[in-house]
Amino acid sequence: MSTTELPASHAELMDGVYRWQRHIYDLTRKYYLLGRDRLIDGLDVPQGGTVLELGCGTGRNIVLAARRYPNARFFGLDISAEMLETANAAIAREGFSGKVKLARGDATDFDAKELFGVEHFDRVFVSYSLSMIPGWENTVSAALAALAPGGSLHVVDFGQQEGLPRWFRAMLRGWLRKFHVTPRASLRDVLESESQRTGATFRFRTLYCGYAYLGLIGPPK
């Protein structure tokens, strides 16, 4: 899907949500987007490998991953032009413009070759984006289709808070709705089903009493 074919309603919604929020996003989200750094540490990118983030937002994760894996090349996709403006500025400040390429696109349906000149990636990761993407299950399928042989998909997102007090769950859900965020109750089932469909290995962890879920779909054993 080209940028001219992006679903206007969702792209405009995200631009509206983040037109001003992007300036304070990283400062505020570090307190409740838990598990992101654990995901980055677990990427284990091979030397000279390629990494794609779907829903790259402000570029915070790509910057950290680029520091962590200095010999890899990074690519980021986001539907919000506002977020990409912030991400490109952050990447330039870090001096990573030569090793990071960003593009505007729909994470549920994208042509990596057209957008990046790269068809497949050694690692694909999605951090707290599936809970904001309509038709998010298609993002999982598209991510797996973009993997190179031996590659892996890494996901972290809100869980169901099953081990936390009911009042906390209600408060968190109310707050998240203000930003059009919906924790995906079927996240584990979808990831496991996709791993079975593709014959891949599957690992899944519940973090912080169900506050967050961390999943990995990797190559067959």
UniProtKB/TrEMBL annotation:
Pfam family, one: Methyltransf_25
Keyword Methyltransferase: yes
Residue intervals of the Methyltransferase domain: 51-151
GO biological process: methylation
Superkingdom in the source lineage: Bacteria
Keyword Transmembrane helix set for record: no
Keyword annotations: Methyltransferase, Transferase
InterPro entries on file: Methyltransf_25 (IPR041698), SAM-dependent_MTases_sf (IPR029063)
GO molecular function, one term: methyltransferase activity
Name of this protein: SAM-dependent methyltransferase
Natural source organism: Mesorhizobium atlanticum
